[in-house]
Amino acid sequence: MEKMIGLPIFLLALIIEIYAFPPPPSLLPPGHVLVSLIKFRLTDLSRENDNAQDASQKGSNDASPTCPKTLSSITDSKNGNFYLFNDDNVWTLNNRTVISGPKKISQVFPNGPDYVNATVTSRDLTVLLEERTLYGYNQDEVTGEFKVAKGFPAKLHELVLFFPVAAFPLSNGSIILLSHFNAFATYNLFDNRPSLLNDKDVFFPGLPKDLASGIPENRVSDDFYMLFTKSQVYKYDNRLGEIVHAQPLSSYLVCK
Ligand SMILES: *[C@@H]1O[C@H](CO)[C@@H](O)[C@H](O)[C@H]1NC(C)=O
Ligand SMILES: *[C@@H]1O[C@H](CO)[C@@H](O)[C@H](O)[C@H]1NC(C)=O
Ligand SMILES: *[C@@H]1O[C@H](CO)[C@@H](O)[C@H](O)[C@H]1NC(C)=O
């Protein structure tokens, strides 16, 4: 009953507030943002009714995760979640929806690096690269927790002369490490050495400039990858060596 009265009063107050005290045009959010702000307030309000005291302490520090605006790297994982990295933070995504974060990298990846330059998941192994150090993890599929994998951390083999800035897995169990320039290495994480060093423009033409990460659409195939740069998401056809779709990270991510 309380809710039924409270809601129209709140809406009325909101409308009066917006019309009586319009924010300067430069501060006025676009229509859809305004609508989602109102929706957010409405869901927040119903919780406030349930527990007014709790809600009054919550303020803007709501349980919903903050949406990342850019990324430095992103990888999938054994249980199907994605982990998005930016600076020293990591967010967890499930089917494009941000379900937690930001957390410090080492809160999710024990004894993990302070930041990452590249990340990749190949079979059961998730690897974070900080400069030339590889931090390897196995994920518990049920709890989602990461444990340091046997043999890690490890140093990148000295035959790889560059500092990797991006990575993606191949379905045969090797990974591709990319340099900032033209070189790439096909790398085997299990014997920790490269099997091929070559020119990425020859083997993987049409990769986006400043690629950060690649995640296969289907783990058993190298045909299609989702490629991520700092703020864009692409679909790459590896058979054609072409980008076939592009969208901003902000529209790819679903944030509640
Ligand atoms: C992922 O989300 C889309 C819509 O955003 C939905 O159609 C699809 O079924 C979801 N997939 C899974 C595995 O939940
Ligand atoms: C690795 O990441 C750090 C932090 O973002 C950055 O300062 C450094 O230049 C990166 N290394 C390379 C090789 O890009
Ligand atoms: C996977 O394929 C790549 C390129 O086709 C090759 O260089 C690499 O050695 C292969 N890895 C394994 C583990 O067979």
Explain what you see:
- The chain has a single domain, classed as Hemopexin (4 Propeller).
- The protein is 23% helix and 34% strand.
- It has helices at residues 2-20, 31-50, 52-58, 105-108, 200-203, 249-252; strands at 73-75, 82-86, 89-94, 97-104, 118-122, 125-130, 133-139, 146-148, 154-155, 166-169, 175-178, 183-188, 193-199, 213-216, 224-228, 232-237, 242-248.
- The chain is globular, with a radius of gyration of 22 Å.
- Bound molecules: 2-acetamido-2-deoxy-beta-D-glucopyranose (NAG) (3 copies).
- The site of one 2-acetamido-2-deoxy-beta-D-glucopyranose has 5 residues, from loops.
- Residues 50-71 are annotated as: Disordered.
CATH fold field value: Hemopexin
Measured as a percent range, the helix fraction is 10-25%
Provide the residue-averaged pLDDT.
83
User: What's the CATH class, please?
Assistant: Mainly Beta
Could you give the order of the helices and strands? HHHEEEEHEEEEEEEEEHEEEEH
The set of bound ligands, ions and cofactors reads: 2-acetamido-2-deoxy-beta-D-glucopyranose
From the spread of the alpha carbons, the general shape counts as globular
- Spans of at least 5 consecutive residues with low confidence: 1-62
Decide which structural class fits the backbone.
alpha+beta
What is the straight-line distance between the termini?
Answer: 27 Å
Q: Provide the number of structural domains.
A: 1
Largest sheet: 5 strands, antiparallel
Q: What's the Cα radius of gyration?
A: 22 Å
The proportion of strand residues reads 25-35%
Structure summary, number of beta strands: 17
Individual helix count: 6
Can you say what the CATH homologous superfamily is? Hemopexin-like domain
Query: What is the annotated CATH architecture?
Result: 4 Propeller
Signal peptide: 1-20
Biased composition (Polar residues): 52-71
InterPro entries: Hemopexin-like_dom_sf, Hemopexin-like_repeat
Region (Disordered): 50-71
